[in-house]
Give the backbone structure.
Amino acid sequence: MPFADVYAGLPVLVTGHTGFKGSWLAIWLKELGADVAGFSLPHPPTVPANFEVCRLGGQIEGVTGDVRDHDALPMRSAASARALSFIWRRNRWCWQPTASRK
């Protein structure tokens, strides 16, 4: 896989990881070897939810909260510093480096 070396061991934050698109992104990154953490509202938005069907909750670290609450974002916490963040913004994925890779 051409991406396998890029994401292997990379700590990544995915906002909206319990939603349809975010859960698929989290699964894809996990399969590529990334250390995935998620930040999302407490309940998946659909029934059934891809997040629950794929049992993603047992595979990645998840933090609940509202992305609009800037003080609650895990990126502000040193304990959950991530090298890369995927953020769903204005109907598209944006990515941004959040910490230097060691």
Q: What stands out?
A: Residues 20-31 form the longest helix (12 residues). The first strand starts at residue 11 and ends at 15. DSSP finds three helices and five strands in the chain. The CA atoms of residues 86 and 95 lie 4 Å apart.
